[in-house]
Structures are given as structure tokens and as C-alpha cells.
Amino acid sequence: MDHPRKKSYIWTTWITGLLAGTDKCNWRAWYKAHFRYAKRQGDGEFDLEQWTRQHDRMTAVRAEKLKESGWTVRLEDDNAFKLDGDVTTLSGKPDILALRESEKRALVIDEKSGRARDSDSWQVLIYMFALPLIWAKGWRIDGEVEYRGGGLSVPAEQLSLDVTNKIVAKVRLVGGDEEPSRVPSANECRFCDILSCPDRWADKSKSADASEYF
Length: 214
Description:
This protein has about 210 residues and is α+β, with helices and mostly antiparallel strands. It has helices at about 15-20, 25-35, 50-70, 120-135, 160-175, 185-190; strands spanning about 5, 10, 35, 70-75, 80-85, 90, 95-100, 105-110, 140-145, 150-155.
């Protein structure tokens, strides 16, 4: 049985695919934001223990290198934040936050042990948007996505007014009262864990014997 939340709540990664344009179903994020729900097991295999080991190892190695370079480093739980608005609450937890207090510079880094996705830079941009609202007003905040084979820089200039407006608009849409339409698709439904969705995509393709042609 699904239960409505007292106030809508958005975890950062629920909206990054929508911002990147790789996800189309606003309803999935909206439902997560508004309900505590029964979950279905996703299709395909995902080894959480292996992912956790790889992710933690990458985080530890990068944190040590940053410390050796003179940065003050904060990790994961120490970086958790909540932005409470009238419409909703936006929450997240950057993997690494490196600081140079004397220069008022910060570097926010997200570690990705899997393949690169268009949504990864949006996750870092949301962190860069959030930090000045919490404590880093007036600081220069740069970002980075680190993969096993290299990194993707997200400079402070990338958080333009247009990007900020897109983040705010998506948060308002997903956290707002109006329920968006469902947009089922093979790829998104495969990874959606909302058990009660009535419009889950099903393969409706038809087959026929065409041996007389080819």
C-alpha cells in the first residue's frame, strides 16, 4: 500500500535524467516525491556490494590525493543537505567536497564507477546550485565527475542563469501538486521500481511468418 508524504521530497538523482533529457517520464519522479511506495525488483542484475566497493575505493583514493594537494576534504554524510522550500524539499549528498577556505574555493566531486551518462554533470550542477544556499555564498564552486577512466570538469561558469532556471523549474514540477502524465517506455520502465504504476511498458510487437519474402 502506497502512502502519501506529508510534504513532497526530492532526492537529487530522481531528476537528473529528466534535466539531461535522457528520461521523459516526469511522473516517475513526481510519484517518488509524493509517495512512500511498494517497490518492484528491477529487471537485470545489479551487484550492489561490488558497486559499493568500487565507489568507496574511488572516493578514498581521490580524497587522499586532494589532501596531499592541500585541500580540506569532507566526505559523503558530512556533505548531506536539504533545501526546504514552500513547494518541496530538495535533498542530496555529494561524494566529495574539497575546500580552500583562504581562497573561498570549493570543488564538488561525484564518483561514478559505471559508464558515463549525460545526467552525471546535472547531478554535480544541482550540488553547485545548492551549496551557496547552505553556507558557501560568495565562494567559487567548481565541479567534477570522476570516472574510472578519467574525469569530466564542470566549471563554475557552467551553472548559468539558464541552467539554474531549468533546475528550479524541474524541482517545482516534480515537487508540485499537479500530477504529470505517465510516459512509459521500454528503457525507463525497465529500471522503474514503482510497483503500482498502471501504465508499465509491455512489449506489444507482433511477429509473423515472412519466409515467402526473405
